[in-house]
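I have been asked to look over a protein record a colleague put together. Thanks in advance; the entry in question is below.
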Amino acid sequence: MLLAVLVILPSIIAVAVFVYGFIAWTFYISVTDWKSSVVDFTFVGLKNWTRLFGERRFYMDMRNLVFYAIGFMSQCIIVGFVLASLLDQKIKGEAFFRTLFIFPFAVSGIVTGVTWQWLMQPSTGVNLLFAKIGMGWFRPSWHSSIEYGIWAITIAAAWQFSGYVMALYLYELREAAAIDGAGTWASYRYIIIPLLMPVTFTAVVLTGMNAIRVFDVVASMGGPGPGNSLDTLALNMYQTTFNAYRFSLGATIGSVMLLLAIFLVVPYLMSMQRESER
């Protein structure tokens, strides 16, 4: 027992300091008056929180978070499940297609953003493809649009992450598909999809966490955009902290992101605990 404790003690200390210690430090900075390059730990209570909730940019961030989460999470889960289902049909070249679908996950968010920024230019990329097939009338502004720009960004982000969700589904899908005695549609509806609910819950948590902290894809595609139409909490936090040197306000934004993450992580941990007790 003592040997086991000694072996994991360095990891416990590292997690305590670099995870929970920094979380506590972030919340502490959010109640101080550090708003310049000069360090100031003067306690101001909830002043920064009140100021943040009074900023229009913060409400745009929350609006964008809701839109981004809906678009990103639904695309990743639906596309990931469909791809896994298709690969489960034992098609020829399955290994090639599996690698092809999961490859975007290995690409950095910056590369993804830059690539899709070009693909979504109104005069090039995807719009040229539409023109070639006789749909020249369809020329959306994509991420340049104030109204639906954040929805367009979810396409790029989902392209990168859907392969990972596919991999989550694929293993469990084959375990569930081993149960026979029902037709294809009935098997999916009554057996496979219900059995995959834990995997779906995991995918919801992972994609939800990604939606809360998204930064690189948005930043490389022109965020925060006109009227903060592409802005996110992470981008706001970065610019507030390192461009405006409002460290306390930046820490407050980071604290809000941590609180939002708790609403995803805690139910997930509780479900995992219940599963382990069965």
User: Anything to note?
Assistant: Residues 38 and 50 are 22 Å apart (CA to CA). DSSP finds twelve helices and no strands in the chain. The mean pLDDT is 89. Residues 40-273 form a domain with the MetI-like fold fold (CATH 1.10.3720.10).
